[in-house]
Amino acid sequence: MFNSSQVILDNVSQGIAVLDADLRLTLFNDRLKELLRPPEGVIYTGVSAKTIAALIPVHAHSSQSSSGESENWLTKLHTCLTPFHQEVVVDGRVVLMTSIPTSDGGWLITFDDISALSGMKKELADQNSRFDAALSNMPHGLCMFDADKNLLLCNIAYARLYDLPELLTLRGTSLTQILDYRQITGNAPARRDTYFDVVIEAALKGSTASQNISLADGRVIKISHQPMVNGGYVATHEDVTEAVRAEEQIKHMAGHDPLTGLPNRTLLREKLDRELARGGDGNAIALLCLDLDHFKDVNDTLGHAVGDLLLKEVTERLKSCLREGDNIARLGGDEFVVFQRCVQTRRQASSLAQRLVDAIGETFKIDGHTIHIGVSIGIATAPDDGDAADVLLRHADTALYRAKSSGRSTYCFFEPAMDANIQVRRKLEVDLRHALVARQFEIYYQPQVDTATEQIIGFEALLRWNHPERGLVSPDEFIPLAEETGLIVPIGEWVLRQACKDAAHWPAPISIAVNLSPLQFRSQTLAHTVVSALTESGLSASRLELEITESVLLTNSEAALATLHHIRSLGVRIAMDDFGTGYSSLSYLRLFPFDKIKIDQSFIRELGHSRDCAAIVKAVVDLGTSLGITTTAEGVETTEQLRRVREQGCSEIQGYLFGKPLPLSSVNEVLRRLSASAA
Ligand SMILES: Nc1nc2c(ncn2[C@@H]2O[C@H](COP(=O)(O)O[C@H]3[C@@H](O)[C@H](n4cnc5c(=O)[nH]c(N)nc54)O[C@@H]3COP(=O)(O)O)[C@@H](O)[C@H]2O)c(=O)[nH]1
């Protein structure tokens, strides 16, 4: 027969030991032996608690007994009247001993193997300390609030971010308390109500959201909310002030011109597109393309620093002409755009354009320099001239082109007919840029004759352009374009070098005259180019003549005069071309010791018809004679004109009567025949 209580005891998972009042073992089970692993025969009914205590030598750690004492188990059995626990380690296993006093003065002791539980507790403790370390070391603030907006926990970074005292970081602190405190210290959300009502409520309702919140102290905090499963939310707080500022700055830079601070082309396009899309409310848009006149001269002569200061000053003046709602942008260089929404488009745009022209026409005083520039303006209007930004900009630019060619410092409205002309001109410009590399230029030479002997004494180099589609293009058409685009500088340099090379093969003292454009004087390397053209070709300086018009001295006269003196000091002769067509040809004779005056063909043409012209020619020749300057009559076509200029005392003649401009091969042939007949 089995003892039923023993069967029960042997089938429970705990080790059981029952001690009587004398602390002797009265009852125990097999599980006790399994846990304590006593040597054979040590555990038996009647054995003392002391013997059992000897089997459990190592205390894992003492849990607090109900009396709060931590004492040796045996001592406690003698002294304690209430249950107590002890964790001990037996043979590597953690065993929880629970000692419960029995009514007869004895003890019921249970032994639980809690090794697994103890491992989990340790793991949990480790995890908690890792979590604490992570929280404390997080660069961002972190906080958890329950569903009632009471703080569950927060980390040091959160407290530091808002300068919170320790008291407000304790569990249970309400969000309102925290925000009230932040309100006082000046770092609460600038729009607290919105933050509270919208952001927090959304988080509590389960929305994951990330939002930048501006604080009253100017900082921007990125707050990311994550709802928690059991209500409440966890939020990270990151100070993104610097990042937001940098982003704003990058955005500003992408849309603005760094020099003037004005919107750039990209931003202009955005604004214009927006305005055009808004259309349809009866209002129109006037778009004004502005280009400064002679700005390049300022850069070339006074330097880029002064040019930059001028652009800033121009910007201020342009802005001062605008009214509320008008927009301005700088497209680059000296190009600006203004657009305005207006009702009476042309009238309002004219009035704005005139204000702008007047403002820029006023003298500028920059860095000790007095500067005169102007502005040319092309205007296109929407919807009449187009309703897309690209089209409007193109049409305003076309009108600008017209404003520039009709004298500058003025404005001009777009007209459809302009488009076709300008397209042709643009195409010519593209072709002209290509012409030099494509070797489409050729120099023709027109003879210059001694009036007395009627012998050829030299030739004038006159440029011709063999256009692949249009055939020979007149210099009257492409030289002004080359001057407008600045291409005259490389083209003029090519003419000079090529003409010197060609003339070097002609018999001395036959000379060569080359035209110089005013723009070539701005390059500052002109004198050097002349020297190298002479050196490369081997032509004597005395056989080279350079023809300039008074416009060279009109702008930038000091620098141009210095260059002229330098070139003349080489032995090169300087001729004043088209004499009498400008305003102050005479006064320029006092400025520079010209070697030759070329009387413009308009006077020669009129010699037989106009007494005035005859008198002018006579006066110029007399002036030349008294100053020791050679005079050449240009455009002599008839024997009658020849007779008259000879009568007036003109020393040299050039004109169709003695020969039209000829290609090099024909000139060489003429010269060959001349030297053969002279031999
Ligand atoms: N900067 C440069 N300018 C140049 C160069 N090559 C030419 N040009 C200038 O282009 C203008 C037109 O030149 P072109 O068509 O060659 O006309 C010249 C002569 O052909 C013409 N001429 C000469 N004699 C007569 C005549 O009896 N009748 C008549 N109707 N025309 C005649 O005059 C032009 C020469 O002018 P000028 O230079 O003033 O002596 C012209 O302004 C050229 O200067 C160049 O390489 N660089």
From TrEMBL:
GO biological process: cellular response to nitric oxide
Pfam families registered for this protein in UniProt: EAL (PF00563), GGDEF (PF00990), PAS_7 (PF12860)
UniProt name for this protein: Bifunctional diguanylate cyclase/phosphodiesterase
EAL domain segment(s): 425-675
GO terms, molecular function: cyclic-guanylate-specific phosphodiesterase activity
Taxonomic superkingdom: Bacteria
Database matches in PROSITE patterns: EAL (PS50883), GGDEF (PS50887)
Reactions catalysed according to its record: 3',3'-c-di-GMP + H2O = 5'-phosphoguanylyl(3'->5')guanosine + H(+)
Organism: Rhizobium tubonense
Residue ranges occupied by any GGDEF domain in the UniProt entry: 283-416
